[in-house]
Amino acid sequence: MFSHFEATEIKKDRVNGWNRKTALMCAGLVALITLSSCDHKDAHHEEAEEEESQLVLTQPIVRDTVISRDYVCQIRSCRNIEIRALERGYLEVVSVKEGQLLNEGDLMFTILPRVYSAVVKRAEAEAQVARVEYENTKRLLDSNVVSDKELTMAKAHLDQKMAEVNLSQTHLGFTTIKAPFSGLMDRLRLRNGSLVEVGDLLTTLSDNSEMWIYFNVPEADYLEYASTTQSEDSKKVSLVMANGKIFDQKGRVNVIEGEFNNKTGTIPFRADFPNPKRLLRHGETGNIRMQRALKNALLVPQKSTFEIGGENFIYVVGKDDTIKQVKLKIAEELEDLFVVVGGLTEKERIIFEGQRQVHDGDKAHDYRFEETKDAYANLKLQAQ
Questions:
Q1: Following CA atoms 6, 10, 12, 18 in sequence, which dihedral angle do they give, to the nearest 10 degrees?
Q2: Which phi-psi region, left, alpha or beta, contains residue 199 (left: φ > 0; alpha: ψ -120 to 50)?
Q3: Predicted local distance difference test score (pLDDT) of residue 67
Q4: DSSP type of residue 229
Q5: Between the CA atoms of 12, 16, 19 and 24, what dihedral angle is there, to the nearest 10 degrees?
Q6: How confident is the model at residue 40 (pLDDT cuts 50, 70, 90)?
């Protein structure tokens, strides 16, 4: 018979043997799964490499398109004036609020008018006395009591007093300030009770019914614009506001100033925009977007080109499937496309995808040709 110790040892050997078998079976299963996964990954990798190695060819396209140019601009009201005091005195009445929309003729400020009212009354009284003297002198002349010279002097005295009345009334009128046109008022510079001197700034008033927007155009763009006959549509421009949104009204280029700025090489343009909702205000900034139509422009995808030493190139596949590196002359850059004016024709085949896998002079063996309607379907082309 086995002792208790021997029986325990035999039991341990059996358990350890079972554990080793289980571990070997699990390890084999894991290895099998790993091998299968690796085989699957290798197959997928080989398939991806095969798909990546296939060249995709297409052709340039000829389309009518529109070229856009953005210029930083400054937005100004068509009328923006300073409201200043024309008489000295205390600011007695402020009838407006900051930011208020005023109509033409609305009362804005009153500068202590009582002194000027008294001056008017005194001038009117003196004029009345002069008128009585003139009438008496005229009657005396009719009776041959006085000479013509005395009547002339009486008339001159009357005219002088009437001029003083008009002058005093004008000064009195200056104490009452009314809106010269309908517009939006800025902040108040002085408050009730302030002592106002002649010329002190009270506020500003802006007529925002139409906005004048100024922007500087480089010399090359100006020559392109001025050397061609501009249709009415070509004079229309858009405004990109500071929040990136397009203003809902179209503007028109109405003014080109007379001189270039020699320091910047630009010339100022002015575009006029209607502002019916009063959204735009004096002093805002944004970008003016001008557009120019291009007829029958030759276009190639930007992603199909590559750059060497600051010049753009593209691979062309000849009739014998020989790959040739061609330098492009690019006139304009669109969002996804280049406008080409030299180095390429619309009949040539270009490498649309896979240009990194080839070199100048190689033979194109494994490729597929993609029609332009499919190749350019996801590229952004700005049409007229």
A1: 180
A2: left
A3: 85
A4: P
A5: -170
A6: very low
